[in-house]
Design brief:
Layout (H helix, E strand, L loop, with lengths): L2 H12 L4 E6 L5 E5 L6 H13 L3 E5 L2 E8 L4 E5 L3 H12 L4 E4 L15 E3 L3 H7 L6 E5 L4 H14 L3 E4 L3 H13 L4 H4 L2 E2 L11 H18 L2 H7 L1
Parallel strand pairs: 5-6, 5-8, 6-7, 8-9, 9-10
Antiparallel strand pairs: 1-2, 1-4, 3-4
Helix pairs in contact: 3-8
């Protein structure tokens, strides 16, 4: 790989941004396509597909054979709240390939005994997220049911464009949450991205069942990202 392309690719990796190295198999030339870069014609469709699936492909575009080598950040799940749902959700998410971090300032809940082998932060979310900002390859689930803990990371997730944002609570609880987020500067369009009540509707009752519903919604959001805008434009 050309050293300049490699340098640019490594910069995208460090910033947790997706990129594709497009190599012309006939002529040998290559270029880097970053997520969001303008791409025309048939190549645009192939690039969008590879960015969504994360799978590299050999494609035929306008009579040329191109290899699209995908480089996507590993999606991660940040959970706000060291509660019973989180105890079930963390190991499930890890099995599904989503590294998990739990954030909860309540040290009585955020303990290694309750969350073995899970990255745990017994701190306020704003302190953790200042060091480790959210990004578009992060899913955020807020499950403390406490506005003092949940609201700030929800607003941060909206601003960062997280691919999934979910919040525990009834519709009445969410209506009050919406008022607070609007007061914090969030737009109505941003707030529409929040999944609340959290999780796919499977009639979940126990913490473990709610965790299954949340993880299913996270996976669906990750695998379908970008499709809504494409369907709306069609």
């Amino acid at each position: 790989m050309d050293i300049k392309i490699l340098e640019k690719l490594n910069a995208e990796r460090r910033a947790r941004r997706a990129a594709i190295v497009v190599t012309d198999m006939d002529e040998g030339g290559a270029r880097l396509v970053r997520q969001g870069d303008p791409v025309d014609g048939e190549l645009a469709t192939a690039v969008a597909r590879v960015l969504r699936t994360g799978k590299s492909e050999l494609v035929q575009v306008e009579g040329r054979t191109l290899f699209l080598n995908a480089h996507l950040p590993n999606p991660r799940l940040v959970v706000i709240g060291a509660v019973h749902i989180s105890q079930a959700l963390a190991p499930m998410a890890r099995i599904a390939g989503y590294p998990v971090e739990i954030i909860d300032p309540r040290s009585a809940f955020a303990t290694p005994e309750r969350f073995p082998e899970i990255m745990l932060h017994a701190e306020w979310p704003q302190d953790v997220l200042e060091r480790q900002p959210l990004d578009s390859y992060t899913a955020l689930a807020a499950v403390t049911h406490d506005p003092k803990v949940d609201d700030m990371p929800l607003k941060a997730a909206l601003d960062a464009g997280c691919f999934y944002i979910g919040a525990l609570g009834s519709r009445k609880t969410h209506a009050r949450r919406v008022e607070r987020l609007l007061a914090m500067g969030a737009t109505p369009q941003q707030i529409e991205r929040i999944h609340s009540p959290i999780g796919i509707d499977i009639g979940a009752a126990s913490p473990a069942e709610i965790a299954v519903a949340v993880l299913a919604e996270v996976v669906r959001a990750f695998r379908s990202r970008g499709l809504e805008a494409k369907e709306a434009a069609a």
